[in-house]
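Example record for the data management plan.
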Amino acid sequence: MILHWQIVQLQLKETFAIAYGNYTFREALIVSLQSHGEKGYGECTAIDYYGINLNDFQAILNRLQSVIEKQSIVHPAEFYTFLLTLELPSFLRSALDCAYWDLFGKLERRGFLALNQVDFQQLPESSITISVDSIDKQLQKIAQSDWRYFKVKCNHFSESDIRKLIESNRNIALDSNGSFTAQDCLWLENYPEVANFTYLEQPMKKGAEQYSNLHSDTLANWMADEDCQTSADLKKLLPHYQSINIKLVKCGGLTPALAMIAEARKLGFKIMIGCMTESTIGISAGAVLAPLCDYADLDGANLIANDIAKGSHIVNGNIQLTENPGLGIKII
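Corresponding structural encoding:
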């Protein structure tokens, strides 16, 4: 194989405001694996609140390039076992795992769903993110959108804002990125109309000392994001969360995500396939798991102005999976 990588800057269509800060662009590391005339692609983005520095990743790839390039073409599960021996950060491991799935499928002339015998009748619709703003501006954006599902970001707790969102009678999920307190969450658990939210994502800061205040047997559909990194987290989250958000970069790629979905199903969790702000490369990787999930939040490429690839894409929330081999990713 031949390994190549580059850092690109993804410009956002508008300022993306969340509880962690405001962003006008994201930097992404794009990796490719090439063999027998085919190329597979993977991606991970620099996320400051996760402590991700892409220059660190470049240094790792420089150090390990020859080791990776010596690997034979084997089944992706075997290649992932090899990746685990390198002790890579999950974001970088995910980019390489996804690139390999894309390459392997292209070499086999089969798509990811066929390779994993995934048969499905329908797909969940993706939400689009409404970033932090005044409640009136957020509701205006929702009213003007052609999408049907929305993830509304907030950076503080407001009873009046919550009531206004519910009264809008739209399909709304609430994502506070850890800005709520235990008292705020208790109020939500005892507020009957909270059931009108599709889910309430990562209400408090990460950690068991926080989520121990949440109860999964209430009307609040709490969804774990930062609290849910790998399959090892699932059992301890069960009394507190009804749903989990699986992001490929958190768990380490498509290979562990498949195992995580299977384990979460056994435990009775509702599952969302989520994303960071990323190009069609990252979205195409996440989209192939949508048939296995209850919810989707795959709007990342819809938020950027300079997408660099083609593949699966999201049109007003409808997930349109590519029929091309592998993950179907092509660089523009």
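Summary line stored alongside the record: The mean pLDDT is 97.
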